[in-house]
Amino acid sequence: MRLPVRFTGRLAFCILAAGVAAGQAQQPELQGGALAPVPPEITRMDTAAAPQTTEAAPQPFGFESEVACFGYIGPDNEQFIAQVVGGENSAEQTDFTEHNLLYLDAGVDRGLRLGDEFWIVTPGEEVLHPMTGKPMGRFNQFRGRAVMVCLEGRTATVRVTLACTDIPDGSFLKPYDPVPIPLGRRQPSCKPCDPASGKAKGRIVYTRDGVIALGNDNDVLIDLGVADGVQPGDQLSVFRHATGADYGIRPQGSYWVYTPPPPGVEIPRTYLGDMAVLYVGDRWAMARIIEARRLIEVGDQVELK
After folding, report:
1. Was domain 191-304 assigned CATH 2.60.120.260?
2. What is the largest CA-CA distance in the chain?
3. Could you state, in order of their start, the residue ranges of all structural domains in the chain?
4. Residue 36 in 3-state DSSP?
5. Which of 4, 48, 149, 281 is the most buried (most CB within 10 A)?
6. Helix, strand, coil: what percent of the chain each, to 5?
């Protein structure tokens, strides 16, 4: 059945008016003939996520080159797995460097395998405690690293992958164990009149390359280790009892060291700086000076924060 034209027009008009009304219901109210602006969505500052920064994140206390090119205190009679007895360029050089091929006095007979990695080590001087004079062991210097490339029954060939310094003929090889660089957040530095922490306390006993006056970024050995509860990443305060020339400083071996006050004499601490532990042994640790406010020397005292 066909509808009248007049009715059809009215029906279309009603549908159009309903659509306009629905659209106006979703629009802001008119103000003076113009559409009111839609307010932007507001985010409260107290509910917004805090910006992420790197300042509060843990930071490395040292560099790989420091732990890979320093050394450790070992026993006088330490047995190494192999010794360098020559090299591909022995006719032209007596000291070796990166990419050189070195020949060893050991092979399959000592359990060596292709792809094995090694520390290259040269034994150094005996370490004497600066206060007691008692031996603590022998300082073994890391010269670099090497990897096994050829293997025979009683000999082998390694390639030098890292040379910290010249590698002399006769150096020894020690199985390579990675030493991760510890991460941490800097603790506040000690100030004059700060009390002792009451934690493990020791002394600086050895310095890299025999340096006497120490400052920022110098590496040292201290007489605290795993047996004293020290771990990589720990931080220590460095201090001394500055008492005067009469009894405050004396020679000890190749160093001049500050000695504690005599019994019955109390002297406030002079805080010198801070250090962070990079790796540890049983009764020693290697640490890096991360802040030096005065010159630091062998014999100065350290205390866990």
Report:
1. no
2. 127
3. 60-175, 191-304
4. coil
5. 281
6. 10, 40, 50
**CATH no. for 60-175:** 2.40.10.410
8 Å CB contact between 274 and 236: yes
Q: Is residue 88 within a helix (H) or strand (E), and if so which, with residue range?
A: none
pLDDT tens for residues 184-228? 999 999 999 999 999 999 999 999 777 888 999 999 999 999 999
Pairing, β 235-240 against β 201-207: unpaired
Q: Three-state SS for 83? A: strand
Q: What CA–CA distance (Å, rounded) separates 79 from 13?
A: 103
Q: Does the fold of domain 191-304 match that of domain 60-175?
A: yes
How far from each other are the two terminal CA atoms of the chain, in whole angstroms?
98
Q: What is the pTM of this model?
A: 0.75
The count of other CB atoms within 10 Å of the CB of residue 81 is 15
Residues 6+ apart with CB under 8 A from 290: 61, 186, 216, 217, 235, 273, 274, 275, 276
